[in-house]
Amino acid sequence: MTEFWFHPALVLIIGALVLPMVKGVARKPFLLLVPVLAFAAVLQMEQGVFGVFPFLNWELTFGRVDQLSLVFAYIMTLMCIIGTLYGLHVENDYEHISAWFYVAGSLGVIFAGDLLVLFLFWEVMAFSSVFLVWFRGTPGALAAGYRYLLVHTAGGVVLLAGIVLHYQATGDLSFNQFDVVNPTLPVWLIMIGVILNAAVPPLHAWLPDAYSRATVSGAVFMCAFTTKTAVYALCRGFAGMEILIVLGVIMTLYGVIYALLSNDVRRLLSYHIISQVGFMVAGVGVGTALAVNGAIAHAFAHILYKALLFMGVGSVLYMTGKSKATELGGLYKKMPMALFFTVIGGLSISSFPFLSGFVSKTMVVAGAFDATHYWAAYLMLLASVGTFLSVGIKIPYVIWFGENKCSEETWNKAADPPLHMQLAMGVAAFLCLLIGVYTPYLYNMLPYEAPFNPYTAYHFAEVVQILLFTGVGFYLFVSKMAPKAKLSLDMDWFYRLGGQLFLLVMHKGMTRVNDWGQATLAEEVPRRLNRFFIDGPARLCLLVVKPLWQLTGAKIDGPDGAEQRFLETFSRSLFTIASTAIFTVAVLMVLLFFVT
Amino acid sequence: MMLVRMIDYLRERPLLVRRFCYLVVAGVLLWDALLLDKSYAHIALEHLPGFWSLFGLVGCVLLIVVAKGLGALGLLTREDYYE
Predict the structure, then answer these.
(1) Region A37-51: what's the mean pLDDT?
(2) Domain span at residue A511?
(3) Is residue A7 part of a domain?
(4) Cys-Cys link to A367, which of A139, A290, A397, A422 (CB 3.0-4.6 A)?
(5) Tens digit of pLDDT for each residue in A125-155?
(6) CB-based contact A389 B64, cutoff 8 Å
(7) Is residue A584 part of a domain?
(8) pLDDT-wise least confident of A283-287, A334-338, A476-480
(9) Are residues A289 and A414 in the same domain?
(10) Are residues A453 and A506 in the same domain?
């Protein structure tokens, strides 16, 4: 079975390791060549099982290639090309290296045939992506990176615990559909580990926290891979798990409501990742062929339009150094191309007709309607109202139109980004349009048999009316939509303030324990032992001589009494040392006797 | 830049833009009320003329009110809260 098979992740890893040695004019072509080769490796891939290696008692499968893994690998390597093109200006080799390792981790998970390989690459993703936050170099980024790492490490431990218990219970490590009708504890644990990466509330706060502080191009990578790899894992193992419908619908609304409260536009977009991934999670939960296809299609479309949005506002951040709505505005004259591409991304995410969201989100909603989960479908449509409200309208409004709140410095710096960034945005925007206009491009890649046509008159009318009247709502409430220089508290409050509280308690508590240990164990006990062993022989002798003194009537007590003089003499004489030694040995022997 | 000139052109004529928008809204509502085949509706309520328009408007207002309400309840705080 294992013929020659080249894992696309390996292309990226080798490329990453060679990169520091490539200098000068060859560097930029090389940067583009590596992800293109990885994409080519995916394109020419045949279905089957490859890369099987024996390891201890197990067989590790690195290459399970089927339609489900192929569609995810396709979009992820494609995204890697776009992201690398967008970050072509980045001089720091290590930022490219961590981005490629991160994508390699995603690809590793996607082709993993068993849970051990899945876990291995799962951790590669967490540990390489954190550098994309850290390389921003701000103190906020450093702290957010540590929080990101801690949360993902905790999630990884839960996942690993689930895998170990699952293996113990079934003796099987292969990664396939779990029993989601009667889930056991290990299945729950694996699910929790996975949905943490999908940013399902209350396990989601790491996402807006880290993504809004990552480097400009790092955020473009991050918004595509972690959550969508988790969606892949859900599609593979948890299709039809009903609780995912509830969680997914909560996500869609949670994300849009928090997005309405965000001032930093990258934070706003991060909450919309949560919202959009909610559609995918709900689709997986519905579990019909149409709904799971919808989840996959939406993941595919989402990677492109969300990256486009992060590239658009990222280029504003790159050029002006600002990403807060309260510090921007009126930039359409200065950055028209960035506006153009961001609006395409914003309309795609809002499922505007002829753009990608229209053909993908609809599948999930139709899947929910068909499976008679009406409440879920209506609430998801309510969430799409919020999506258009803040991404489709508010972001262009607060950055490019609206009141100009730029400082003079920001205004002078503002200009359309370098050509390679515009090119990357152009590619992503073109693909958003392609998916929306030519549906077979995406639909033919989907793994399950579920024919679907989004362009019915009724659906068209439904979407156009929802979008149009969301616009009317914005027009009526435009004063309420003005950004505020405020921070929204989220679940990270618990571990950020909880962490500080923990630190305080530990600090105070441990200082006390330490003080007590110092006073008792390090000072009082040795002092007493010392006195016991030094004075011991003398006091033994006193036991004998005291009655004799009492018989002779000598003065015993007091500073010049016989007892005090005896002890002083005793401590000065050579006899003391010898007797202390004998006494110590005797006590030790008694102890030994009792111990053995 | 053509895009900038186009935006400037529209910004100088707010009345024209507004009239165009009224026209689009009216057109869409008429289409929904008179021409649209509603046999694909999921529930009876959707047969109401302009149901999805109402859904969009009410949903939009609802989300703004809920978000503002939560913000006022203490979810929004000063930006240096954690420092």
Answers:
(1) 93
(2) 497-595
(3) no
(4) A290
(5) 999 999 999 999 998 999 999 999 999 999 9
(6) yes
(7) yes
(8) A476-480
(9) yes
(10) no
Cα A218 versus chain centre, distance: 13
Tell me the domain boundaries of chain B: 1-36, 41-83
One-letter amino acid for residue A109 of the chain? V
For residues A449 and A325, membership in a common domain is answered with yes
- A-chain residues near B3 (CB < 8 A): 332, 336-337, 339-340
Label residue A4 by pLDDT band (50, 70, 90).
low
- What's the pLDDT at A574? 64
Contacts of B60 in chain A (CB under 8 A): 385-386, 389, 469-470, 472-474, 477
Question: Is residue A182 situated within a structural domain?
Answer: no
Asked if B74 has any chain A CB less than 8 Å from its own CB, the reply is yes
Q: Which residues of B touch A256 (CB under 8 A)?
A: 63
pLDDT for A1 equals 42
The answer to whether the CB of A407 falls within 8 A of the CB of A321 is no
CA distance A323 to chain B (A): 14
Q: Which of A454, A485, A516 corresponds to the end of one domain?
A: A485
CA angle at A273 for the pair A434 and A468, rounded to the nearest 5° = 65
Shortest distance between the Cα of B58 and any Cα of chain A, in A, equals 8
Of the residues A271, A385, A422, the best mutation for testing chain B's interface (the one with the most B CB atoms within 10 Å of its CB) is A385
Structural contact between residues A415 and A319, judged by C-beta atoms closer than 8 angstroms: yes
Looking at A432, A459, A485, the residue that finishes a domain is A485
How do residues A514-538 score in pLDDT, each as one tens digit? 899 988 888 888 888 887 777 777 7
Peptide bond into A559 cis (omega under 30): no
Weakest-pLDDT range from A15-29, A484-498, A550-564: A550-564
Nearest by CB to residue B59, choosing from A260, A385, A486, is A385
Whether the CB of B79 is below 8 Å from some CB of chain A: the reply is: yes
What pLDDT digit, counting tens, does each position of A405-444 carry? 999 999 999 999 999 999 999 999 999 999 999 999 999 9
Q: Does B48 touch chain A (CB under 8 A)?
A: no
- Asked whether B64 and A481 are in contact (CB, 8 A), the reply is yes
Nearest CA in chain A to B5: A333
Q: Based on the domain organization, do A460 and A565 belong to the same domain? A: no
One domain, residues A260 and A392:
yes
The verdict on A369 touching B (C-beta cutoff 8 Å) is: yes
Q: How many domains does chain A have?
A: 2
Determine the Cα–Cα distance for residues A42 and A45; give it in Å rounded to an integer. 5
Give dist(CA B29, CA A461) in Å, integer. 9
Rounded Cα gap, residues A40 and A209, in angstroms:
34
User: The complex's ipTM?
Assistant: 0.94
Q: Are residues A429 and A296 in the same domain?
A: yes
Whether A378 and A452 share a structural domain: yes
In the structure, what pLDDT confidence band is assigned to residue A2 with cuts at 50, 70 and 90?
very low
Residue B8 predicted with pLDDT over 70 = yes
A299-314 mean pLDDT = 97
CB of A389 less than 8 A from some CB of B: yes
Contact A100, A15 (CB under 8 A): yes
* Domain presence at residue A197: no
Structure tokens at A138: 């701000």
CA distance A58 to A50: 15
Q: What is the pLDDT at residue A339?
A: 96
